[in-house]
From TrEMBL:
GO terms for molecular function: nucleotidyltransferase activity. The keyword Transferase applies. Keywords: Nucleotidyltransferase, Transferase. It comes from the Bacteria. It comes from Marinifilum breve. NCBIfam families: cyt_tran_rel (TIGR00125). Residues 5-125 form the Cytidyltransferase-like domain. The keyword Transferase applies. Pfam families: CTP_transf_like. This is Glycerol-3-phosphate cytidylyltransferase. The lineage of its organism: Bacteria, Pseudomonadati, Bacteroidota, Bacteroidia, Marinilabiliales.
Length: 129
């Protein structure tokens, strides 16, 4: 069984998020998703996501393409998560192209094309206007 792992915030869940999860799942037989915590987001962007980590996790774990979820507490722990969850493949969107190549010694690393014209940031901007 081929185990796939991916990571993300998945705030204001949208079609780009769904498409990457579907395509990540199609790379193997079992999809594990690391959901970045509110604290991790705050440390990166000095602001919290709109949806809490609990709600973001509930949404992701309810998807039929997702088999298992956990909280990603630190960007530095990616290698540990890959080992802990016995991942054969790491999938990320190509906005992260090249950024996780160091994990090629642990598993296959695949970057998938981002869905154009949609992002959480753009949704927030449109609503604000
Ligand atoms: N994504 C996509 N198309 C979009 C928007 C996002 O394919 N239009 C993908 C991203 O490339 C990423 C995933 O959806 O692989 C989750 O995106 P975000 O919620 O923005 O998560 P991010 O902040 O990139 O992840 O360790 C990484 C962190 O958890 C951060």
């Amino acid at each position: 069984m081929k185990r796939v792992i991916t990571f993300g915030t998945f705030d204001l869940f949208h079609i780009g998020h769904l498409r990457i999860l579907e395509r990540a799942r199609a790379q193997g037989d079992y999809l594990i998703v690391g959901i970045s915590t509110d604290a991790l987001n705050f440390s990166k962007k000095q602001k919290n996501p709109i949806y809490t980590e609990k709600d973001r996790m509930r949404i992701i774990e309810s998807l039929k393409v997702v088999d298992e979820v956990f909280y990603e507490e630190s960007l530095e722990l990616k290698g540990e998560y890959i080992k802990k969850y016995n991942a054969d493949v790491l999938v990320m969107g190509n906005d992260w192209e090249g950024r996780f190549d160091e994990f090629k010694s642990l598993c296959e690393v695949i970057y998938l094309e981002r869905t154009p014209s949609i992002s959480t940031t753009e949704i927030i901007e449109i609503i604000k206007e």
